[in-house]
């Protein structure tokens, strides 16, 4: 098979034959059909009985929002949706947010292509490992096939998105590109008292220069000193606006000079960040998702981080991604 993929091919991978008959029969999109099946790990649940290609009534929307607050990451299998239905599904959880990476790509002269990189919808990003010819590659100027280190989306802007969603159109046949999520409420709760004390009242500057695969954003200069690090300042602990619970909020980690804690020496900041990161990324706080075509996954950037394993760069992987508006992080102190 040619690795050159056409949009028509990718749009039909997730077909599962949903019909209005399911809706009429009450087997989907009703409170009775709704089921949340926890992963058994520290976070995450699969939601059954919801089909985003069909209308979702208000009582089911409410059940979805409650499940999201409880499980932090929601998985929906076998969704067969277009971008409008994708955005409508995201709208259940919050208003659309324009991806922060989009302006870097457009300013650098990249064109809207609707296939490999930039969608015509400002709030839909195409997360693929394809180049402009539709060929899988290691580096496509975005996340490519790279490992994506633990991070929370867009923490390098003043008002980061509350949640992000990925919809899998094409996934590699032989693995790679698994996405893990971790529970940062639990990471905060189980932080040794001495570390809780060390971060109380502390803020961190979030470096915007590189994406989560470590690729320098188009048109941006790599910082060589902490003074050159550009990005907003957020508290190291934030209070979730819906649940009222505290979560550790680390953003992402790059080699120095990058994120740093305000009001500490460089060495102290690095040493404290090392300890916080070692704790926050403990495997016991995480759950790993292995993708199938048609999977739709929603996560909460206010209380989770996520990670993606490297993709075999001979295998195509195409996701559509959207984010929903959040609020500036609020410190508990
Ligand atoms: C993202 C991201 C991971 C993946 O889109 O924000 O981190 O699995 N993606 O592609
Ligand atoms: Mn991400």
Give the full name of the CATH homologous superfamily.
Answer: Clavaminate synthase-like
Shape: globular
Q: Enumerate the distinct ligands.
A: N-oxalylglycine, manganese (II) ion
The count of DSSP E runs of length 2 or more, i.e. the number of strands, is: 17
Q: What fraction strand?
A: 15-25%
In short:
The chain has helices at residues 7-11, 20-24, 58-71, 83-91, 100-107, 184-189, 193-199, 266-280, and strands at residues 35-38, 45-48, 73-76, 96-97, 124-128, 148-151, 163-170, 179-183, 203-205, 233-235, 237-239, 246-248, 260-261, 286-289, 296-300, 304-308, 318-324.
Task: Give a written overview of the molecule.
The protein has a single domain (11-324), classed as Clavaminate synthase-like (Double-stranded beta-helix, 4-Layer Sandwich). Helices cover 21% and strands 21% of the residues. The chain has helices at 7-11, 20-24, 58-71, 83-91, 100-107, 184-189, 193-199, 266-280; strands at 35-38, 45-48, 73-76, 96-97, 124-128, 148-151, 163-170, 179-183, 203-205, 233-235, 237-239, 246-248, 260-261, 286-289, 296-300, 304-308, 318-324. Strands 1, 2, 3, 4, 5, 7, 15 and 17 form an eight-stranded mixed β-sheet that branches. A four-stranded antiparallel β-sheet has the order 6-16-8-14. A three-stranded antiparallel β-sheet has the order 10-9-13. It starts with 6 loop residues before the first helix and ends in a 9-residue tail after the last strand. The relative contact order is 0.21. The model is unreliable at 1-17 (pLDDT under 50). It binds N-oxalylglycine and manganese (II) ion. Residues 151, 153, 212, 306 line the site of manganese (II) ion (MN). Manganese (II) ion binds at residues 151, 153, 212, 306.
């Amino acid at each position: 098979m040619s690795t050159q993929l056409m949009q028509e091919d990718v749009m039909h991978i997730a077909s599962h034959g949903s019909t209005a008959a399911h809706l009429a029969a009450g087997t989907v999109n009703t409170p009775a059909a709704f089921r949340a099946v926890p992963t058994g790990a520290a976070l995450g649940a699969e939601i059954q009985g919801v089909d985003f290609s069909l209308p979702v009534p208000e009582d089911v929307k409410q059940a979805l929002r409650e499940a999201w607050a409880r499980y932090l990451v929601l998985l929906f299998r076998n969704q067969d949706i277009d971008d409008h239905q994708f955005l409508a599904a995201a709208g259940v959880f919050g208003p659309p947010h324009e991806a922060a990476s989009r302006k870097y790509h457009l300013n650098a002269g990249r064109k809207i292509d609707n296939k490999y990189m930039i969608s015509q919808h400002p709030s839909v990003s195409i997360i693929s490992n394809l180049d402009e010819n539709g060929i899988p590659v290691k580096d496509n100027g975005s996340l490519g096939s790279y490992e994506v280190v633990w991070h929370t989306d867009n923490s390098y802007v003043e008002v980061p998105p509350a949640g992000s969603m990925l919809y899998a159109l094409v996934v590699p046949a032989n693995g790679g590109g698994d996405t893990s999520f971790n529970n940062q409420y639990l990471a905060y709760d189980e932080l040794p008292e001495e570390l809780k004390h060390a971060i109380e009242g502390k803020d961190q500057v979030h470096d915007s220069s590189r994406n989560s695969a470590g690729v320098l954003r188009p048109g941006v200069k790599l910082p060589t000193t902490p003074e050159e690090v550009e990005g907003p300042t957020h508290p190291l602990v934030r209070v979730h606006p819906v649940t009222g619970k505290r979560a550790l909020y680390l953003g992402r980690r790059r080699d120095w000079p990058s994120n740093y804690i305000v009001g500490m020496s460089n060495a102290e900041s690095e040493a404290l960040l090392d300890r916080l990161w070692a704790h926050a990324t403990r495997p016991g706080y995480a759950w790993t998702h292995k993708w199938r075509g048609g999977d739709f996954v929603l996560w909460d950037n206010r209380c989770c981080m996520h990670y993606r394993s490297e993709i075999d760069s001979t295998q195509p992987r195409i996701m559509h991604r959207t984010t929903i508006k959040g609020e500036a992080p609020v410190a508990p102190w």
